[in-house]
Every structure is written in C-alpha cells, then in structure tokens.
Amino acid sequence: MFSISLFLLLPYCTRQTSDVIIESTPASSIGGVIQTELEKTVSLVCTLQSGTHDDKELVWLRNKAAVDLKDGNKENRSSVCISPVIIEDEGATFTCHLKSNASNKASVTLNVTYHTDISGLEEVTVEDGESLVLQCHMKANPMVTSVTWKLNGSLVDLLTSSFIITSDGITSKLQINKVQRNLHEGLYQCTATSPVYGERSKSFQLTVTEKTLKFPLMPMIAGLVVVGLTALLAIISRWRKIAQCCK
C-alpha cells in the first residue's frame, strides 16, 4: 500500500521541485494540458515562488521560440494571453523559466478542439465527358469519425455510377473520371461527423453542360495569317496589272 501511494504522489512532487509555477484560465490538468476551443481566450500567469534568486527575470517560450514581453511583465510574475485561440495553437507548449537558470521552469500545453471547417453551397460546372473531383476538408480535433457523400439525398453508388472516394485523413475526395449528365448531374453533399460537435455538411450543385468542340488556337491563327497575306499579295498584284494597262 505504501509503494502505491508513493507512486501516485510522484507526479505532484516532481512538479513542485521548480520555483516557477504556471496558473492558467481555464485551469490545466495534472499533466499540464489546457483544454480549450477556437476563438476562446487562454490566460497564463507565471510566478516565481519562494527561494533565493539573484536574477528574478522570467522568460516565456512558445514551442521553444521566445515570447516578446513588455517591461514590467518580466520579474517575479509574468503573464501571457492567447486571444483568440487559433488552429495553429493546437499542441503548442508554453514554457516559463528563470532567465538565469533555464532548468528552473514550468510548462503547459494547449489542446484545442475544433470541428472541420465545411459549410455552404458551391456551384460546379463541368462538360459532359470530362473528369471531376469534389473535395471536403475534414481536419478536426478530435478527428471526425466518418465522412459520407450523397447525390440528391441518397448515398453515392460506388458500383454503378463510376464514383471513386479517397481520403488521406485531412481531405475526402469524390472523383468521377468521365462525367455523364444522366448519371452525375445534381446536388452533392459531403457530411463529416465529429464525436464532439456532431455533423457538418457542404453541398455542391453540379451542372453538366454539352461538350464543346475545341479547336487548336495557334494553328488556326497561323492559317488565318497565311490566308490573309495570300489575299493581300493577290490584291497588290492585281492592282499593278491594272495600273500597267492604264498607262
């Protein structure tokens, strides 16, 4: 029983060996992790506790990069405010330490939760017979548990309608190698499901147009130039003959 109790107390004692402590709003867990969300505010206060220190200046680091502090916010007590919290703050570690002794420190890490950023309606136009790729960005924390694709309210048919769905964990793609109006035109919907935030969707209104006949532009221009020059030379030659007859 004694050995178990000592083991449980070890993390607490280890955190108290430093004269530097960090208090946060919202509060951190025992492991120094602060749970927060996008657009929220996180306040950190670093305090130098009891002890004899010739240098009482404190330094803040964000992922090992120095945080710029104003005068008056460095000695004995120093604060940092993260507002608003952004996606790039996910996993960021903030460390406060004595300038004269970097080993005398404390750290906290942000765990920023957010849903995938998909919404709205996008108009898409493609020619009959062309290829098409629709994309839904599904990056989120925690990760989404599922992504579904629907066409006109029904799950896309991967067997009979030439659809290919791929995902790399960040982006889900719906691909059609050869679009056919009777099979593929309509309203597509991509839905991502989060264990925390529920469902979010993005729609794509696909319009399939008739295939247009495409001509190579440069050969056409070259041909027109040749025809134009030939006609011009013919006219000049004709006028010369007329002029000679009139003399």
Automatic annotation (TrEMBL):
It is a single-pass type I membrane protein. Residues 11-96, 106-209 form the Ig-like domain. Its main location: membrane. It comes from the Eukaryota. SUPFAM superfamilies: Immunoglobulin. It is found in: Membrane. The keyword Transmembrane applies. Residues 1-16 form the signal peptide. The keyword Membrane applies. PROSITE patterns: IG_LIKE (PS50835). PANTHER family: IRREGULAR CHIASM C-ROUGHEST PROTEIN-RELATED (PTHR11640:SF31), NEPHRIN (PTHR11640). This is Ig-like domain-containing protein. It comes from Ilyodon furcidens.
